[in-house]
Amino acid sequence: MMRKTDTRLQKRETGIAGLDQVTRGGLPSGQATLVLGQAATGKTVLGLQVLARAIERGDGGVFVTFEESPAQVKRDAASFRWGAGLLQSDRWQLIDARPRLGAEVAGEFDIEGLLSIIAAAIEQTGAAWVVLDGIDQLLQYQPEPQIAIDQIRRINEHCEDRGWTLLLTGKAAGDSMAPIRFEGIEFLLSATIVLSTLMVNQQLNRSLRIAKFRGSGHVADEVPMFLDDDGIQLPYHEVPPTGGMAASIERVSTGIERLDKLLGGGIYRGSGLLISGRPGTAKSTLAGSFAQAAARRGERTLYVSFDELESAYVRNLASVGIDLRGPIETGFVRFQSLSAYASGVTAHFLALRRMLDTFDPRCLVIDPVSALFKASGIEGAAMATEYLIDLVRRRGITTVLTSLSGVLDPEGEATLGHVSTLADSWIVLDYNVRGGERNRSLSIVKSRGSAHSNQQPELVLSDKGIDLADVYEYGSEVLMGTARATKEREEIETERRRQREREHRRMELERRIEQTKRELDRLSVELELEESQSSETDRLERLHREHIKYRRDPGGESLAMHAVNDEEKHP
C-alpha cells in the first residue's frame, strides 16, 4: 500500500536514553537513517535496542542481518536486560540475508526480492522499524559502486512510500560518513549517525555524533556513549526534570556547630558545598561529619568514596569521634566505594545516577569528586561533574563534594573541574607551617546567600570530634598550634594572676574594714566612758557649788544638807 506523502518532517522515538534528546525527538519517520562505525562501536546493538524499545511500546520490527548469523544476533540481544523481552516477542522477525559461502555473483543483484520478504514480515508483525544490519556486506557484491548507490536509493524510496522507518548499519573507515568503498550514499539519506571508539588510558571510550539530520535541529557535537547491560546510553543528554525545585531557605548543619555559625547558620537545603584542600587537611573528616549530622536528622545519605574502603573509613572517622557504623547498619547512610581507574567517566556517572535512583537520598557526599579526572575520558570529566551537580540540584539533594588540590595551588584542581563555580558554598582547607608545626586551617571562599565569616580559624581534630579554635590575632599574625596554645595559656595565667591580685585586694579591704569596725567599737566605748566621766564631773561640780552656797548662807542649812544627802544617795 502506498502511503500519502506528508511534506512535514515526522520523527519516531528510538527509546534509547539520550538519543531521542540529541536528535530532538527521534529519527526521521518513514525514511532511512545511516548508522556508520568501525568494529565494536555498537551498530548492531543500536538496531536491536531500537526494536526492543519499539516492542515495549507496542510496535513491531524487522531485523535483517547481512553478516552475523541469526543465532549470533539472538545471543547479542540476550546479553542485555531488554533482550529477553525482544526474543520472546512475536512482534518482530529476524531475516537471514547473508550471501551463501563461496557464492559467486554474476552481473547485478536485484533488491526487489529482499524488499518483498521484508514487506511480508511487516504485514505479519505490524512493524514500524526495519533494520538492515551490515548493508556494506550486501553492497560489496555489486561490482559497480554507482549501481550499488542506486540500490540504496530504491530501498530508501520504497520505505518512504510505505512509511517504514529504516536503519541501515555499515562499516566506515574512521569518522567517515559513508560505508567503505561506497562514498556518496550519505548524500542520499536524511540522517547519518557516526559511532566511534577511542582508547584513553588503556580504556575503550565510545562516542556518537549526529553527522547529518536534514530539516531538524540536533546536537552536532560528539557526545559520550556508554554500553552496558542496559545497552546504549547517552547519559549527559537526558531531559532534566521540568519546573525545578523552589529555592529553600532551610539551613542544614554540617555537624560542626562553630562552622555552622561561620556559614551563617549552616548550608541551604538542596545546595552544594565544595570542600577542597591538599591531602591530609581533613576533607573526608568534614564530609563524614556532615553525613553523621544528616543521619541524626533522620535523612538518608549516599556516601561515595573513590579513595577508601568502608571498613577503613569508618575506623578512621571513629578516631575523631564520628560514628558512621550505626547509620550504615540502620540504613540511613549507604557507603559505596568505587575505583577511579576501574571505569571511565561515563560509567562512573551512570553508576552514581543509578544509586541516586534506587536509594533516593536527601543528602549526597562524593569524596573526592576530583577522582573523576583520574578516570579514562578525562576530556568528559568536567561535563560529567557539571551534569551531576545539575542533576542533584534539580532533585533537591543537599550535596557535599570534596576535591583534592595541589601543593602549590590549593584551589587549582577544583577550579579546573569547574566545581568551584557551580558549588553554592566553597570551603578551602590548608596547612599553616610555623615554628616547626603543621596546623590545619579553614577558610570560607564563598557561600551564596549567606553573610559568612572571612576569618581563617584553626581546624582542630581530637578524639572528641572536630572543632574550630578561636582566631587568635597577635599583631599582624594569626597564631595557630603550639604558638596559639602557648599564648592562650599565657593569657589564662595572666588572668589567674589578675584574679589572685583582685582577691588579695578584696581580702585586704575586708581586713581594713574589720579593723575599722573594731576601732569604731573601741572609740564608742571610750566615748561612753568619757560621757560617764563628764556626767560625774558635772555632778561633783554641782555639789561643790551647793556646798559653797551653804557655807555662805547658814540659815539654809537643812535645805542645803538635804540636797547634798540626796545627791550622795542618787548620784
Summarize this entry quickly.
By secondary structure, the protein is α/β, with parallel strands linked by helices. Helix content is 40%, strand content 23%.
Structure notes:
β17, α13 and β18 (398-404) form a beta-alpha-beta unit. This protein folds into 3 domains: 11-237, Rossmann fold; 251-470, P-loop containing nucleotide triphosphate hydrolases (Rossmann fold, 3-Layer(aba) Sandwich), CATH 3.40.50; 485-557. It is built from 17 helices and 24 strands. With 571 residues, it is of the alpha/beta class. It is rod-shaped, with a radius of gyration of 47 Å.
> Which radius of gyration do the C-alpha atoms yield?
47 Å
Average per-residue pLDDT, rounded, comes to: 83
Number of helices: 17
End-to-end distance, in Å?
156 Å
Q: What is the fold-level CATH name, i.e. the topology of the largest domain?
A: Rossmann fold
Given this structure, which CATH class of the largest domain is correct? Answer: Alpha Beta
How would you describe the shape? rod-shaped
CATH architecture label of the largest domain: 3-Layer(aba) Sandwich
Strand order within the widest beta sheet: 5-4-6-7-3-8-9-10-11
Any idea what the CATH superfamily of the largest domain is called?
P-loop containing nucleotide triphosphate hydrolases
Helix/strand-derived category reads: alpha/beta
Helix coverage percent: 25-40%
Number of extended strands? 24
Strand residue content: 15-25%
The major pleated sheet works out as: 9 strands, mixed
As residue ranges, the low-confidence spans are: none
